[in-house]
């Protein structure tokens, strides 16, 4: 079941013209979000996801979708799935698919995961500040990570600085404060990341948005990644050059971040 161009469709295939830019060039933008009771729930942040889509479409000079129709489709799909992916084509067509939460999500949140350091240039996302369909580098990094027994991949820049994971934003705890890489055009400014930054600062916590060079990483006491669907996932081991290395961590520290999601 999926929603496409104003209609709810039963099936698992979509028909596109052979010259559709979305098919040939991956010319679409998308956002993925988790349904917390309803679209209007603060944690779902429907408006935030729509605003990000709208801004991206404006930057690309693409046609805006029928926003009322997009919401109608999201409401229809939310009756069947807890996670939705809303895609907008360059001509404004909307396409919404749904999926279930990972069956081991709670285990990942409580026990943490292993992540692979994808320190090759081929794994850097193009147009990193936007959620476009061209996620091939990140997808390739995730596939390689899984071959090595890891659950995530950490993407780096040409100097080896850590940027983000293949599906989320990085967070670290060290020297009594929170750290997260800066929004400088090289990472996706995740909505979950933005909410957490504001929430922590309102709680009186220090949040530094700094470049994650080797010195900063070496002094972190705990590492995690976040996104709107998975919430907060601690990272307890880093695989670099196929060698797993336990990383100093304190999974309990990230329980503070989880409080934001209830």
Keywords:
14 strands; alpha+beta; 8 helices; single chain; five-stranded antiparallel sheet; globular; 262 residues; nine-stranded mixed sheet
Commentary on this structure:
This protein is an alpha+beta fold. The chain contains 8 helices and 14 strands. Helices cover 27% and strands 28% of the residues. The mean pLDDT is 94.
Summarize the helices and strands and which ones pair or pack:
Blueprint: E1 2-4, E2 7-9, H1 21-24, E3 28-34, H2 46-60, H3 67-78, E4 83-89, E5 94-99, H4 105-111, E6 113-118, H5 136-147, E7 152-156, E8 162-165, E9 169-174, E10 177-180, H6 191-202, E11 207-209, H7 214-218, E12 222-227, E13 231-240, E14 243-246, H8 255-258
Parallel strand pairs: 6-7, 6-13, 10-11
Antiparallel strand pairs: 1-2, 1-5, 3-4, 4-5, 7-8, 9-10, 9-12, 12-13, 13-14
Number of H- or I-type helical stretches: 8
**Mind telling me the C-alpha Rg?**
19 Å
Spatial gap, N to C terminus: 30 Å
Strand content: 25-35%
Q: Indicate the structural class.
A: alpha+beta
As residue ranges, the low-confidence spans are none
Helical coverage, percent range? 25-40%
Main beta-sheet annotation:
9 strands, mixed
Mean pLDDT, all residues: 94
Give the beta-strand count.
14
The H/E string reads: EEHEHHEEHEHEEEEHEHEEEH
Globally, the shape reads: globular
Quick gist of this model?
The protein has 262 residues and is an alpha+beta fold. The chain has helices spanning 21-24, 46-60, 67-78, 105-111, 136-147, 191-202, 214-218, 255-258; strands at 2-4, 7-9, 28-34, 83-89, 94-99, 113-118, 152-156, 162-165, 169-174, 177-180, 207-209, 222-227, 231-240, 243-246.
């Amino acid at each position: 079941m999926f929603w496409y161009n104003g209609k709810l469709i039963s099936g698992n295939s979509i028909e596109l013209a052979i010259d559709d830019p979305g098919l040939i060039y991956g010319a679409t933008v998308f956002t993925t979000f988790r349904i917390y009771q309803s679209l209007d729930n603060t944690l779902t942040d429907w408006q935030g996801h729509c605003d990000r889509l709208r801004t991206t479409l404006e930057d690309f000079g693409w046609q805006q979708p029928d926003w009322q129709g997009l919401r109608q489709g999201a409401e229809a799909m939310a009756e069947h799935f807890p996670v939705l992916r809303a895609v907008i084509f360059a001509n404004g067509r909307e396409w919404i698919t749904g999926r279930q939460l990972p069956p081991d999500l709670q285990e990942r949140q409580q026990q943490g995961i292993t992540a692979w350091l994808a320190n090759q240039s081929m794994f850097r996302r193009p147009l990193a500040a936007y959620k476009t369909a061209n996620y091939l580098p990140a997808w390739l990094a995730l596939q390689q990570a899984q071959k090595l027994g890891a659950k995530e991949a950490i993407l780096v820049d040409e100097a080896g600085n850590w940027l983000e994971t293949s599906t989320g934003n990085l967070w670290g705890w060290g020297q009594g404060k929170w750290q997260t890489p800066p929004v400088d055009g090289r990472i996706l400014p995740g909505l979950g990341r933005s909410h957490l930054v504001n929430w922590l600062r309102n709680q009186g916590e220090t949040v530094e948005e700094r470049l994650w060079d080797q010195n900063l990483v070496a002094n972190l006491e705990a590492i995690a990644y976040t996104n709107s669907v998975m919430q907060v996932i601690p990272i307890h081991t880093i695989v670099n050059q196929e060698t797993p290395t336990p990383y100093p961590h304190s999974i309990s520290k990230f329980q503070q971040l989880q409080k934001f999601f209830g």
